[in-house]
Design a protein that fits this description.
505 residues; mainly beta; Lipocalin; Immunoglobulin-like; 3 helices
Length: 505
Amino acid sequence: MEYPVRRALFICAALIFAILGAGALRGLLGGQATASQNGMEGTWTGILAGQLHLVVVITKADNGELGGSLNSVDQHAILPLSNVTLNGNAVRFEAPRVGGVYEGELKSDGSAISGTWTQTGEPAQPLDFKRGAESGAAVPAAAAEHTPKPIAPLFNMVIPISPTAFQADGKWNLVYELHLSNMDKWEYRFTRIEVVQRDAAQKTLATFSSSDLDGMFVHPGLPNVGRTSKLMPGEFGAVYVWVTFDSLAEVPAAIQHRVSVKIGDYPEAMSVVTAATDVIKKPVVVIAPPLRGSDWLAGNGASNTSLHRRALIPIDGHAFISQRFAIDWVQLNPDGKTYTGDPSENKNYRAYGAEILAVADGVVTEIKDGIPQNTPGAKALAVPITLETIGGNHVIEELGGGLFAFYAHMQPGTLRVKVGDKITRGQTLGLLGNTGNSSEPHLHFQICDANSELGSEGIPYALRSFEVLGKGWGWKSSEAHGDAVKHEMEIPTENEVVRFEAGGR
């Protein structure tokens, strides 16, 4: 297998930044050495199969628990790690999103790890890591030895789009981002963010501690190595927030945020309550499924850590997350694989050639055709990825009410509609393929608020009905136990395996 780490199946922010400039990724290997030379914390670099350059960052939470991320630099994909352990000299961590497990042995001087990488359905491969170096080490913000008592926290917080309440997995949810800028001369460490109801009591709805924030905080344009929930003077960060409620009645009409921050080396945290943001509680758009049949896996679907969720992409001078609720639909075989036989042949993938269906009545506002198909697992895509080719052959449909549906990666020459066509729910738009930024046949689907696959904001939606059969890459219908669970008026969450109603309604 030429790419042991599964490529992203979607239009991702990392690839956009590769188009616009990959300096942030290259910067991972520069800077000063880590301070933790004999433990696992720090940056580790390795090469898998002689071609995939990997950067692993291991962090330690306040409670001593290890965590981290794996950056497959050549594939522009960053994966969270789980179950990171160091028992004696035995190292182990998992990358659950791709079914990967690494096991190795840390050298006594802490300079290297020797071990093997295994991935679902693939043989083990040797993989050694050397202790790397952290980049982005900042020059001290001020010459003073200690930070005097601040007058007030000098950061700016913006919520770029008001959250819309929607249902998933039997819960009601609010999903949005906090854009934070440090306008002070001191380092800021955000230690706690509370979501509170806008009323006199300011009831707390959710609390995110320092360790929570480390996993929610990103630094666009900069490597996250050693930064966690810190902002240096002049830096910008984004915090990805997901708040869950048991019922719609519990969802407030407006929210505020109580933000606690440590400033420089001043010993006490300071807190502020930010301005209110309205919550949209009107019903989301209800759609029919874009595909028929069973065993469809919602790859990179709704979750707070999926790569679609975090695809913050600047288009024409404004940063959007058009893929906030996007799904990459792939279809599993009974053995849990997406293909049979030779994995380099598109025709061997179960999803290949499936009819892509209009999710609602609407009007076609954009199409793209003529982009050749990719070879699964190849070292290069069929065409260079640009803003024009990233979605491959695709259709954009205006649904009304300022909403648009985007269907991507179709087979060339199979589109059955043209711009201006009025289409009806369930109408075939084209056939599922493997074009644009795609590593295997799948349908990338999203709903957004503008006639642009990237220059828009992703909006939640609800499928009238679907059944959840299981969950996870490699889920095997041949080994499934228990009954399917019917969901109504919800969006599927990441990696759920579903069956759509007969007739595609």
